[in-house]
Amino acid sequence: MRALRIKRLLHNYAPAALLVLVIIVVWEVIVRFGEVAAFILPAPSSVWAALLEHRTLLLGVHLPATLQEILLGFLLSAGCGTLLGLGMHLFRPLAKAVYPLLIVSQTIPLIALSPILIMWFGYSLGGKIAVVFLTAFFPVVVGTYDGLYKSGEQYKELLLTLGASRRQLLVKTQIPLALPAYFSGLKLSIVYCVIGATIGEWLGGSRGLGYYSRRMAGNLHSAELFAAVFLLSVLGVLLFLSVCAAEQIIVKKRGLRR
Amino acid sequence: MLSITNLSYSYGAGSGGPVIEGLSLNVQKGEFISLVGASGCGKSTLLRIIAGLLEPSGGDISFGGKPANGSAARLGKIGYMPQQDLLLPWRTVLDNCLLAWELKRSGSKAAAVQQIRSLLHSLGLAGTENAYPEELSGGMRQRIALARTLSAGSELLLLDEPFGALDALTKRGLHRWLLQLWSSLGRTVLFITHDLEEALLLSDRICLMHGGSLQEIAVPLPRPRHGELIYQPQFMQLREGLERRLYESIAH
């Protein structure tokens, strides 16, 4: 059983792991023997060394700050996004009014708008959460609304003849059927949260991996910059996997996929 | 129980003539009526109108002795079983059948579960209560959908080709079950089928749908009936006559 699981893990992840390994080795060799300046491209080994050297600062101060912005921003995005998506589903006029605006809001380059947001909400947590919210809110709304939009059409008539109310239609068929699309929205959203938090920190502040990487870039400390980016990427992957795990648990509980 | 007078229905403008025109039908309590007719002649539409899913363009419908012209007056009061089984894939067989109880919450859950268990048992589905629909064959799923319709407790049931997808043997088994238990269930049925043998064996009357209205054909076979009836000469003759009338209606 266990051997089988390991074999499956290997089968699924070995190619990607191998590719990463090859890239790291080639990268290291090129930097070492190609005499690339360290501030242009630091070797993986020096990135790792920088990570170890600054680990208390990175893991003790900057990572928690970024994580806090991400989690608060995600909660806000998921909460408001779910409510708005549900509201748009229940009141079609709301959907007609809001959907085009939502799409337009996504065409505005956020980075251009962010200084204004910082002006409105300040350099502290508020401004950063505002940036995170604006980046991560859209996929949740779309996931919720599109998931509910067509779901359960085929069951609708049957449930109506069984005497179902509109609320019962929603609870008994539409929500369970919308869950996969909803979770796709959440998965995109959590990844966007990491991006949003980083952008927010680039714009200003005194803490966070984004702030740190910008400061290091300014000082041409590329190894430290890469260390921060590496941590951000690990953080993103872990958060993404957490949403996947939540999906597994909920979907499994509902018996949608066993 | 159900009385329809001069009913008409047409899909939106530009879709040709009306699908149903000047249709009248009287259904007595406890009757079993089959609807036969060529594909696309409007049988399913008629059932959907009666169920309250479609609003007719004209005519009168009364249900249970009271006028029930608005579709809302009928929706939720008449059992309807569509052609597809429409079982919810994330619910077990028992939970699928409990859906009707969950929506209406009449009586205790234990009583509803008990009733469903005995229904499943008599439909030959004992032991499948905790299975998921995807684990079962098409025939079993269809019978579970029938159990769900029956468990909703409506007196009038509209069944749209409930046995259409079943193999001949399973179908025979269900016929036998229906013939044995039907009178004790006290339900009234309007039943769409393309199987003339089935129509003759089960029904009190057969309605041949053609050109938007109905022709009634009485079935002069005494009850109680048995499954073996289909091999008797009288039955074969009836079947032949019915087939001819159906063929003539299509040819014209």
Task: Write up this protein.
Chain A: Pfam families: BPD_transp_1. The complex is a heterodimer of chains A (258) and B (252). Chain A contains ten helices and no strands. In chain A, helix 3 crosses helix 6 (125-150). Chain A has helices at 2-34, 44-53, 55-90, 92-107, 110-121, 125-150, 153-161, 166-203, 209-218, 222-253. Helices cover 86% and strands 0% of the residues of chain A. Chain A is mainly alpha-helical and 258 residues long. Chain B folds into two domains: 2-78 and 155-251, P-loop containing nucleotide triphosphate hydrolases (Rossmann fold, 3-Layer(aba) Sandwich), CATH 3.40.50.300; 85-153, no CATH class. Chain B has helices spanning 43-51, 93-97, 99-104, 109-122, 138-151, 168-185, 196-202, 233-251; strands spanning 2-9, 20-27, 32-36, 58-63, 66-67, 79-81, 156-160, 188-192, 205-210, 213-218. In chain B, strands 6-7-8-3-9-10 form a six-stranded mixed sheet, with helices on both faces. A four-stranded antiparallel sheet of chain B has the order 2-1-4-5, covered by helices on one side. In chain B, strand 4 and strand 5 form a beta hairpin. Chain B is globular and about 50 Å long. The interface between A and B is medium-sized, with 19 and 25 residues.
**CATH overall fold name of the largest domain in chain A:** MetI-like fold
CATH topology of the largest domain in chain B: Rossmann fold
Would you identify the CATH architecture of the largest domain in chain B? 3-Layer(aba) Sandwich
Number of helices of chain B: 8
Give the ordered list of helices and strands of chain B. EEEHEEEHHHHEHEHEEH
CATH homologous superfamily label of the largest domain in chain B: P-loop containing nucleotide triphosphate hydrolases
Number of strands of chain A: 0
* Backbone structural class of chain B: alpha/beta
Radius of gyration of chain A: 22 Å
Largest sheet of chain B: 6 strands, mixed
Low-pLDDT segments, ≥5 res of chain A: none
Please provide the ordered H/E string of secondary-structure elements of chain A.
Answer: HHHHHHHHHH
The unreliable regions of chain B are: none
User: Largest protein interface?
Assistant: A-B, 19 and 25 residues
Overall 3D shape of chain A:
globular
With strands numbered from the N-terminus, the spatial order across the biggest sheet of chain B is 6-7-8-3-9-10
Helical residues, percent of chain A: over 70%
What's the CATH class label of the largest domain in chain B?
Alpha Beta
